[in-house]
Each structure stands twice: as C-alpha cells, then as structure tokens.
Design a protein that fits this description.
The chain is α/β, with parallel strands linked by helices. It has one domain: Rossmann fold (3-Layer(aba) Sandwich), CATH 3.40.50. Helices cover 36% and strands 17% of the residues. The protein has five helices and six strands; from the N terminus they run ααβαββββαβα. The longest helix has 18 residues.
C-alpha cells in the first residue's frame, strides 16, 4: 500500500479526480489475517469494491501492482462495477511457474498493462503473449526499468495518465 509504485499510480488516478482506495491484503502491513495464496485476497478485493460502491456510486477503475495486479484482475474482470483495469508489473513468471492468466481472454473491459523492460516477473515475450491472448481493448506499455520501475516511476505514471485520458471519461 505504501510502496512507490502504488503511490504514483494513486497520484495518476487522482489527477483525473477519481477517488482512490489503497489497502493492504490480509496479513500485509498492519492488516489482520494471513496470506491465503490469492484465494482470500480475492475476497479482500471484493470487499474493497463493495466499500467503493457504497461510498461513491461510481464506475470503478481497478489498478493493482504485482501480486495485487494478478489477484485484482482476476476478481475485477467479472465484476460489473469495474469499468476498466490497470495491471502494473503484472506477474506472469514467479515461483518457478508461468501464469497464463487465461481469464483475460474473456475480459472485454479496457485494460492497461505497464511493465518494466527488465521486469523479472514479466519477462520479455511472456507478458506480451499473455496480453496478446487477452480480449480487446487492451494496451501494453513497456517502461525502462525493473519490476519496481526504479528510476522510471514518472514514465509509469505518464503511461497511466495517457491511457486514462484516451480511454476513460473523468467522473
């Protein structure tokens, strides 16, 4: 919740006037519970969507980083309250396995993927293959740098702002 990638994504979305909710998954930071390999964390995303719906009654733009991107994309693709999706550093290779994220093939919502050119969890070719199989509309932006966009957070933010300005009408 407090890392630089999430902070810069929040700033990008706030620049359009979107309300932004940042949260830790169960067991992260000072949150209660323990890590649940993505199962319970999908419930955490749904609880956040419920809160946003109650508080703002607006279409939701989901943005998640790394594990949060993977879990959030899976939870938000089928949710009618979510209008668009942003995956930052979306992991497709970790724990010695590849993750095809096949559910994206049925997700017709606008999607932006931003990843570092040297992202160890989104290696060249592998992330491109996942995005190529995702339903349109979709966009992949490679920004110089690693998984954390070290030294390139401004480019990551610009990619988000450019996509939002072309894809979504501000609230």
């Amino acid at each position: 919740m407090h890392n630089k990638v999430v902070f810069h994504a929040m700033k990008a979305l706030r620049s359009f006037g979107f309300p932004v909710l940042r949260f830790n998954f169960r067991g992260a930071g000072h949150s209660q519970g323990s890590h649940d390999e993505g199962r319970g964390e999908m419930e955490d995303v749904r609880a956040a969507l419920d809160w946003l719906e109650r508080e703002f009654h607006l279409p939701i733009v989901f943005a998640g980083f790394s594990f949060g991107a993977s879990v959030g994309l899976r939870a938000c693709c089928p949710d009618a309250r979510v209008a668009a999706l942003i995956g930052l550093g979306t992991p497709v290779a970790f724990d010695g396995r590849t993750h095809a994220l096949r559910f994206l093939g049925n997700c017709a919502k606008p999607k932006l993927f931003v990843s570092g050119t040297h992202d160890e969890f989104g290696p060249a070719g592998m992330l491109e293959e996942v995005v190529s199989r995702a339903a349109a509309p979709k966009r992949l932006v490679r920004v110089a740098g690693d998984h954390y966009f070290a030294g390139h957070l401004d480019e990551m933010r610009q990619a988000i702002e450019g996509w939002v300005s072309k894809t979504l009408a501000p609230p």
